[in-house]
Every structure is written in C-alpha cells, then in structure tokens.
C-alpha cells in the first residue's frame, strides 16, 4: 500500500512538471526584466571568486532577542551554507543595515549573528534581522534546494546564466523527501527540470492577491490558493487593537484586512513557503511591519504589537556659539519619536532658511560668516505623528579687529561689614569691579563640532590688592583691574531635592529615579536625591517610581541653573487610592474627585469584559481597582502635578494647558499581583465644575508621556444631558456631562485639559534683605506660580488651581508664565512662592497698609491687581506667599505698560525690564547675616570664581562648607563673628580670607538659650593643590560674653594636632581649623558638594539639628555644641545719658556743659553736641 502511495505521488509530481498542464505559468522576457530592476537590494552579488548565499531569517526578536545562529541555519537549510563562510551581512527585514540601526549587535563567522533585547539602549527591542554569508565558489548546489528555502529574491547563481525555477508544492516536496531511494530519484528529476522556463502558481479565483504576494518582483515563490494567514494585533500592554489596517509591506496603501474587536484578522492567498512582510497601522499608533513564518499546513499565525505613536521630541538642541567674521560654525539638532522624524527645517530669527542654498539636514553649517548672520537659530522637525521645535541658540558674530572681550571691568559693589564705614563717604559699599557675563570667541582646535571642545568667556585677567579704610580698622580686598577672553569655568550642574507625599510629607524611601528609560539613582531614607546634569541638557524630565507601589509614578520637569550649582526641588507625590473590588463582567463607574460636601468632577465608566491579562486573554473575576484623582479643587495637590502641563501643537510650539483634574489607574487581579489592562473606557466630566463656559467646547482628554514630560492628546469630548440627583439634593435635576472615549493603552497619567491662549508673564525679583537694594538681588531662587480660577460660588471652597509653573531667578529676576484676562481682572488669580535651597523666602508685606514702594508696584495698577500677602487677613499665617489678580495690562494705559504683568508676546521686554520697573518682591528672612570675602565671589554664579591664594573656595569643582555650633546663655540673641586668616601656608599666613557674621537663633524649647551656627574657612589645599593651610579662626560673640565651656572632644583633637592657637581671652576662642571632617560630637559640621550654597544649607541644617545626618530649621541648642558662652544682660545702676535726656533734658545738658567746661572748656562741648541738636532738645522741653 505504501508503494502505491509513492507511485501516486510520483505521477502527481511528474504531471505538475508537464509543460502546458496544471498550474504552469510562462513568463515573458519583459516581466523578468522588470523583476530584476526592482530587486536591487537582494540580488546575489559576486565579488571576485566568492558568492553570496540567499538571506536567512530563522528567529524573531521576541523573548530574549533575535538569534540567527549559524548552527541553527545549517540545521534547517542543510548544505546551503559553506563550511567556512568568508563574510556575513545582516540587515533588518526593512532592509536597514545592522550598523545603521543604532542597536547593540554581535556577529561571528563561527557562531552567526545575534541581538539581545536587554542590551539595547532606552528599553528598545531588537529589530527583526536576516543574514546571508559569502562563500567560496563551488558546484551549483543552490539549484537543488527546497523551493521554500530559496532566496526571497529568487536570485541567480553567480557565474551561471539566469534560470527560472519550477515551483513544487511544499507539502508535496516534504513527502518526496521521505520516500527514501525513490525520493532521491525525484530530487534528481527536480534538478534536471531547472532548465525549464516555467514558473508555477496556483490559479486562484482572486488572482490579484496571489500575484500581489507571489508574482511581486520582490518574491519568487509559490502562492497557495487555500493558505490563510491568521493575525492578532495587541498594544504593548496586551490590549487587543481593533480597527487596525493590514496590508502587504510591498503595497502599504492597499488595505487587505482590518482587525476585529478582538484584534484579529484573516488574510488569504499569502505565500506559505517563506516569510512575507505584513504592514499594520492605526491612528495614534506607530506603523509596524511583521514577517510571517514558513508553514505547510495551509494556514499560519502572526502576532503583532503596536506601540503608541510618539510625537517628535528634541534630544539634541543647537548650542550658543561665538565666532569671528569670516569664520564657520556647525549647529546640530536631533529628534526622536515613533515613527522617527524624517524632515528637518532650520530658521534664523524666525525665517525659514532655504534648504537648496544651505544644504542642511539635521545639522546646519554656515561658512564665511557675516555680521548679519548673528541672531537666534532653531530647528524644526516633523514626522507623521507631529512636529517639534528646538530651543533657540544664539550665534554671535564679532567683526574682525574687534576685541573679543571688553578689558575694562564693570562696576560691582561689595557690601562691607556693619561696623565698617569709610571716612569721608560714610558708604558701606566698595567697588571691587567684575568682568561682564558673556561668552567670547576664543581659539578652538576645531570649529566644526556640535559642541565646541572648549567655551570661552570674559574673565579676570589681572587683580590688585587694596586696603579699605573702615575707620577703626582696615580690610584687605582683591579688586579686578583687567578682563580678557579665556576658557570658561565649567561648573557642575546639580539638581537636588526631597520627595515626599502631598498629604503628610511622608518621604519616598528608596524610590527609583528614571531619566527616560534609564534608571539613574535612588532616593534616600528621607526621600532626598541628587542628580548631576550634563551641560547640554535643555529639558530635564525625571520620573520617580515607588517600588512598593504605594505612591503614584510621578514624572517631573525640573528647572535648573546652567551657570552651575544646584537647584533644590521639594517634590510632592500623590498617595495611591485604596483599591476597591469590582466585577470584571459588569459595567463599573468610579468617581473622579471626592471633596466633602461637593459632587465629584466626573466619572470613569468601564464596560463589562474590558479587563485583560498581559497575553491579551480576557480577565474574568474580581478586579482590585485603584483610581487616584488629583483634584484641582484642593490647592495642596498643585505641587504634586506631574509634568509641566504643556503640549506641543501642530506647528511644533510648546503651549500651556489648564487642567480640570488628572487621574491614574491601577487595575490588578484578585490576588493583587498581576497588573491588568483595560480596553476602551468612558470619561465623564460634569460641566458644573467648568466655570469658564468658553472652555467646554475646547475640552480634551490627554495622557502624559513619562519620557518627555509632554501631554499628548487622546481624544475629544461630546456633550450629553442626563437626569440625576446630585450630592445633598432632595430632587432629581438635569445635568450636562462631557463624555470622552479613550483607550488605556499604557500605564500613564490622564488629564482633563483645555489649551489656553490668554497668557501673560509676571515679573518677580528676590533680594538679600527687606531693603530691596538692586545690588543685593538673589539668583538661583525657584519662583513658583499656581494659577487659580474664579471662585466656584461657595464661600467655603477655595479657588481651584489650573496650572503650576516654576522659574529660576537670574541676574535680572524671573518672568513666570501665567493665564490672564483683559476683560475681568479677577478671571484668573495667582498664588506665588519663592524657595532657595529648601528655605522659603518672605514676600513683601501688604498690611497694615499697602505701600507701593515696598511691594514694588505703582498705583493705580496695584489696586487693580489686588496684591495680598498670605498673612494679609490672618497675621498668624506664614508670610511666604502672595496672591494677585492676573489682569492683562491695557497697552493704551500708560500706568500698565511698565510691568509687573506683561503680555505674552512681550517676553523680551519682561526679561530685560530695568530694576526700577514694576515687579513683585521676595527677600530672605535671615536679616542678621553677613559674609565678606577678600576675593569677591558670587555663589549663585560659579563662573565668577577666581584662582587666588586668598579665595574662600579654593576649588571651583568641589566646595567644602564648615560650621561650628556656639551656644549662648542669655536673654537675648547675640551677633557672633568669625574672623578667618591664613594659618600655616607661606602664601597666606596672617592674611585675611574673609569675615562671617551671624545672629544666634532662639531655642524655643529652652528659656534664655540660643545658638549660632557660624561658618569658618575650612582647612585644606589651596587653589594650586600644592600645600595645606590650617586656617586660623577667631570666634567673637558681640557683647558682654564670657566663654564657659569647650567641647572636650574638640579640645582634645586640637591639642593632638598642633600647632595650637592661644586662647588667653575668655571673651573669644581661637583655633587652627581641623583638616579632618569632624562631626556633631565635636560641634563641627562639614559638608562637601559641587555647589557652595547647597553645601552650606546642608551643613546649617545639620548644625541646627545637632546631628551629622539630620536636618532641621528649628534650633536645638542642647546637642552638638562646640563652645558655650554666657552673655548676661548688663544691669543698669543709673539712668543712661539717653534716658536722662528724655526725662530732664535741660538739667542734663546744663550739667554736661559744666562738666565739659571744667575739663576741656567750651570747645569740647561744641564738638560733641552741635548747636542745632542743643536747640532742638531745648525747644522740646
């Protein structure tokens, strides 16, 4: 019986090879020519005396990666690969060379080619690769192989004439191979039939599909009439994707099928004998291409995963450059996205540059520069998903012969100590000079880099030593006399902060920190973190993830200071809502927003059978559902808002959003372990909470991209009316809802937002004290503005917030974006705060009387703005914020054209506003604090550092702050001074480094006790890093003070580390500062950081707390003390001169006159008291 079957099969085989019979198709010469012409990528090449094999693809990138192992290829394709390949080529199935994909790949002529998913940057997955090998020439064994194993190109054998191939049914051929000796006969017969000019393809009723797949010039294979390709399409979270378009990659515009509700599709007439590329796409998803697998059973399966389309995002911005006239420059731009951006455009001062003239792509090269080419340049890139613009870069072209830097220093006033008054001028300021803050054109080793190898700035060329006469004593100072162009100091840029919950400040302990898909750190036990930023960073997006899943994943867009140093951010995260149990087979509604006594803002409606597992399987049973809503009606949640509430429009501009609430979902199975996905859901928004009716038609659904921090549109809302009973209502009423449909494709945060075009800028400055002196402006202060909407109509309910923005102050303050309105001054209001290194600054007061000179805004605009500090109505409240109406200025009213609110198009006017223009003010609460450096240095601008032996900070890359804790016994706070001189270094011995003054802080827990944390000059290497200097420190409390205690450990350390400073006077303490970083047990607090202000703030916090690792703003005078002084209040035995002058001025002056005449005569009396003062006092009597 078996032999009969073999004979029958042989007869069938011979019949299929007969000319003119069966499914035989003869091709014309023109068809063959057209085929070869279109097949430029896959024709087998002959190089010298070698030849290439066909392409092999035996694996796909699912699982661990794509492994095209040579051993496995030989197993499947037997003798098609030579024993020792001479070369190998790898390409993706989209014909991209492996070297051009940017992926990490491996290859070996002994092992083959492989790509591992976990090695790919940014969480990417390997592409689908196929490979071919270069072999020495040999007998034409390629002509005798299984047709299913032929090259996709069906290419000719090198060195032999082009010959067509008869095509055998794969199922038939597999039976032939199993026939033993008869199979050998058939194989031989098959080889001899290769000279036939025939090509077989089954005659299908729908031949267009067959020949689209089989007769396409890119494919030389059989098309089976009954072969069915079954496909399944899911999102990255396993959600079935319905309505996706399926096409052949060779004809992507011809839609062959669409996925059903389960994400499945069916495609007939696709070749089964080798892989065929299938293209799948859907709106809001990135196009994907998958390869079918070889199959001989009449049908096969393919599974595709669609990733959400991502708008382009700039990852490399053009940088500021300075060049001389006639030079050249290269500006670079690069964007990422899904699909990848494919078009770039360059603009100069807003004008599109002609691509034909400048011949640019990602990079713009300008040669033979002219002066008129100075200005701002930016790039714009586009993809099918959208557009994006880069940050502008400033190109400065300097005329030939012009100095790169002005050699004359500009004025820079240094404030002198309180007891230093210069005779003749009575001024407490001295002009020490400084060089301007600008870049210059230096000498580059190569001028055509995206980022110059070195940057040049105007810096100090020469300094001279001067002496300041303070009357009773003198102060040395190093003043700038000449500036020049030199390499810029490259400071370290840091972002620091603490992550705590918005409800009770519980720290996020050991949370994971991500930038993009890369984990870059972990928060500490107290939630603290430090991030070092690369100099070319323009937009910093950091994602905080709680590994315990108790808090929401929170992406934050951090602002930072490019001039160096560290910015402190107090990061708030939301606690996840407690899960509730819901039935997956029923319709479920979950309220969004729970404010006591008020209706929810909306609802999340989940249809039945919407939950699924990661593999796409429908989940049935109980679901643990946690939906956390960030309610804008609760102003305390504003700081927890993720991202920066911006979106990118179709033109590539980043624009603001106004939120009506955000929510995050977390669905898990009954065991609370496996994360579940959800398909299409409905979002309902109650329009009663939208107080601005013009926002209703513009409302949209958005989701936050955690990698870019940008909100992306998910869908629109439609309006519906329903009858319902509201909260606390006794009767039912009609309510209007906005209904939006969305698909929860990934674990993102979602938002109910409207784009808002009524925008302004608010000018704010920060100062060292409440004197508000222009020379005492503070840089690096984080100013935050919360936009509030109109009152919702309930007196007990505060205004809801709609937006949160932060900006860092520069040398000319800060301009904060805000929503404003020209028709109604109170349509939008703002709540503004300021923070510096974790310290809250105080706002200018508004009570008991509104003073325009203190607030910084003139009348009548001040009344229109309605400025109020946070303690305006309740003195018990903090003074660290103010509230204003955001009344858009009327440009026809002169009183409103000078700030502090500027129209959105007047940003440059806001940034360049003079210091006497209207602005809002903050100041540091620590008034009794003073610092003097012999070598001037601005700690908020690290580029002002100068290498000098007397520099307080000897190293611009590392700053070490040292503090000593001094306790004061006495009823009053006392000023304490540290005088810091060189101690052991030959270049600085006996010379002053600087002076520090600080007033002691009252300990609220102990009567008649206060303490001071006094900074002193740390011992260590000086700027030349050649020799250590033990700084000589003198600590002097001001007043009637006597030292009564010294920390025993500190005393022992100083004795064991000579030389020992003399301490013969009880009213002071002298020491040679320790080189070692002693801790709180010694009363010494030392912190090293890349930023001086951060180092000082951390050290002060530890000093206040009296520990080596804690932090406090409340003084604890009983722990961690180094020195103790008793400063009793002096007892007054008789009335002072001032008291006697007040009680009996005539008698007092007469007695004084007699005493003076008796001692030195009338002349002395006239020197002490002028006649004017005498007459004034006598007249008052």
UniProtKB/TrEMBL annotation:
The protein in question is named Cartilage intermediate layer protein 1
The residue ranges of the Ig-like domain are 312-396
- Species of origin: Larimichthys crocea
One Pfam entry for this protein is CILP
Assigned GO CC terms: extracellular space
InterPro entries annotated for this entry? Answer: CarboxyPept-like_regulatory, CILP-1/2_8th, CILP-1/2_b-sand_dom2, CILP-1/2_C, CILP-1/2_dom, CILP1/CILP2, Ig-like_dom, Ig-like_dom_sf
Q: Signal peptide span per the entry?
A: 1-20
Sorted keywords for this record are: Cleavage on pair of basic residues, Disulfide bond, Extracellular matrix, Glycoprotein, Immunoglobulin domain, Secreted, Signal
SUPFAM superfamilies referenced in this protein's UniProt entry, alphabetically: Carboxypeptidase regulatory domain-like, Immunoglobulin
The yes or no answer to whether the keyword Glycoprotein is present is yes
Q: In which compartments does the protein localize? A: Secreted, Extracellular space, Extracellular matrix
Q: Where does it mainly reside?
A: secreted
